[in-house]
Amino acid sequence: MTKYMEKIPVLDYLRKVVNHESVEGYVTFLQYPTAISETLKFKLTGIDHGEAHVSLKTDVKIHANQQGTVHGGMLCELADAAIGTAHSTVIEEGESFTSIELKINFFRPVWNDTLVAYAKPIQRGRTITVYQCTIENEMGKQVATVLSTVMTLRGDKAKGR
């Protein structure tokens, strides 16, 4: 027998996650948690309309590059997850989105630490939105800043994405 699942808006669903409420019995039109976030052990720590905070406890045994610091690609993925989560709160069912540009500046190395990526829009449009994402370490020091351009897809362009 299939259990009834109530479809709720993405923002409402993610607020339940952040508030440690059960999401059993609830679904959204998007897939949460995402496979990549589960694989990389990202944790959603804050959510609002168009904004998201995503954290990661880094471990150089898993995340290090050849210099022994956390790989820059991991920081890019953390920021991209925060930006994607933020944007998922502003799109409607039947819409989709895709990143069309991502630029990162690295400011300090990371070893074993807890990082938080704070994503918010700096320019919103109907189709194109530009996000800024700041990644901080557990001391509150800025590790990296990311700018990303996200395109919202509608109609036939959103199908199958």
Please render the helix and strand layout as text.
Elements: E1 6-7, H1 10-18, E2 26-27, H2 35-40, E3 43-48, E4 51-57, H3 60-63, H4 72-88, E5 96-106, E6 114-124, E7 128-136, E8 142-153
Parallel strand pairs: 1-2
Antiparallel strand pairs: 3-4, 4-6, 5-8, 6-7, 7-8
Task: Write a structural description.
- The model has no long low-confidence stretch (mean pLDDT 95).
- The chain has 161 residues and is of the alpha+beta class.
- The longest helix has 17 residues, at 72-88.
- 22% of the residues lie in helices and 37% in strands.
- The radius of gyration is 16 Å and the shape is globular.
- The chain contains four helices and eight strands; from the N terminus they run βαβαββααββββ.
- β1, α1 and β2 (26-27) form a beta-alpha-beta unit.
- The chain starts with 5 loop residues before the first strand and ends in an 8-residue tail after the last strand.
- Strands 3-4-6-7-8-5 form a six-stranded antiparallel β-sheet. A two-stranded parallel ribbon has the order 1-2.
